[in-house]
């Protein structure tokens, strides 16, 4: 028989698998090949990056899958613990992510799907959900930077608009070259540490000409950097969102959800490591004020 939290665990597992796939795909972008027609009257050339680096088309898709499963896990979590608490579930059951304080004094709102979102949860668990809402940060600008708000926005953008935009950058770590025809490569020097933008001097190749149409294949070894448009590495952003979801929501609401969680076998998730990382993501989390309406019987009215 399925456990009520199996859906949440499965979504978290799938998000972790997509994150691993994303990191593996990024690591594959480690060599940039190019074929160069060289001047037969010279003994060497400076290799310059002539084209922008392109993001492999599947990277934004894999990112979107990871984001969606992480966001969906929160809805499955609320459904599962509502079932465990003996509450009634329905189309309204889910995990809210609120940028503005709800209109607690509006009876109409309490009867709406938004107001009934957490209707089946007990006061303690409802308190946890309210405490992590983005609006608790005090203003709209601060709320927009909340990890749950970022997760929600990335998910909505990917589902309903377009894949989230990311850019690829690379730092040169090495270079190799081989003669294709009419020459012999005598040496290669990489400009290690340079950012491989258009026009960047990536290195130098020295050769000896032996025919009329010398041609060389150059392979530039790089450390890829795949980032959101604001410069945040996507792998780091995913880890931050995952840490926040696990540490601030999943574990406090349902500590047993991770007891048989398959992704922990293959990931760097560890409870001790969360203390330091969560403090970096949200250092004043314990100081947040608490609303009372959602965990003091307000839904009953």
Secondary structure elements and pairings:
Blueprint: H1 6-28, E1 31-37, E2 44-48, H2 58-84, H3 107-111, H4 123-131, H5 140-144, H6 147-160, E3 166-181, E4 183-190, E5 201-209, E6 215-228, H7 234-253, H8 271-281
Antiparallel strand pairs: 1-6, 2-5, 3-6, 4-5
Helix pairs in contact: 1-2, 1-7, 2-6, 2-7, 6-7, 7-8
Runs in which pLDDT lies below 50 for 5 or more consecutive residues are: 258-301
- The strand order across the widest sheet is 1-6-3
Strand content range: 15-25%
If you average the pLDDT, what whole number results? 78
Number of strands: 6
Individual helix count: 8
How would you classify the helix and strand content by structural class? alpha+beta
- The H/E string reads HEEHHHHHEEEEHH
Largest sheet: 3 strands, antiparallel
What's the gyration radius in Å?
Answer: 26 Å
Kindly report how far apart the N and C termini lie.
35 Å
Q: What form results from the Cα inertia axes?
A: elongated
| Number of spatially distinct domains | 2
Helix content: 25-40%
């Amino acid at each position: 028989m399925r456990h009520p939290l199996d859906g949440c665990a499965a979504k978290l597992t799938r998000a972790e698998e997509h994150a691993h796939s994303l990191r593996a795909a990024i690591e594959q972008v480690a060599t940039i090949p190019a074929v160069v027609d060289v001047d037969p009257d010279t003994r060497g050339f400076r290799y310059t990056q002539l084209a922008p680096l392109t993001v492999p088309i599947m990277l934004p898709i894999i990112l979107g899958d990871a984001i969606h499963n992480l966001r969906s896990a929160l809805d499955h979590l609320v459904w599962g613990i509502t079932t465990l608490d003996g509450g009634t579930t329905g189309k309204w059951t889910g995990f809210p992510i609120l940028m503005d304080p709800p209109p607690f004094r509006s009876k109409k709102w309490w009867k709406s799907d938004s107001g009934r979102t957490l209707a089946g949860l007990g006061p303690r668990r409802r308190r946890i959900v309210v405490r992590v809402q983005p609006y608790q940060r005090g203003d709209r600008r601060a709320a927009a930077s909340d990890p749950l708000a970022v997760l929600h926005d990335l998910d909505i953008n990917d589902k309903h608009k377009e894949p989230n935009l990311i850019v690829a950058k690379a730092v040169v770590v090495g270079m190799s070259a081989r003669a294709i025809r009419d020459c012999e490569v005598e040496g290669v020097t990489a400009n290690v540490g340079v950012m491989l933008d258009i026009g960047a001097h990536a290195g130098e190749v020295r050769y000896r000409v032996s025919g009329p149409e010398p041609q060389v294949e150059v392979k530039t070894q790089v450390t890829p950097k795949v980032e959101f448009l604001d410069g945040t590495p996507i792998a780091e952003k995913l880890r931050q969102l995952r840490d926040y979801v696990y540490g601030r929501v999943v574990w406090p609401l349902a500590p047993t959800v991770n007891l048989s969680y398959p992704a922990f076998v293959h990931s760097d998730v560890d409870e001790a490591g969360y203390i330091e990382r969560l403090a970096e993501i949200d250092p004043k989390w314990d100081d947040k004020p608490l609303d009372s309406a959602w965990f003091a019987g307000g839904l009953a009215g």
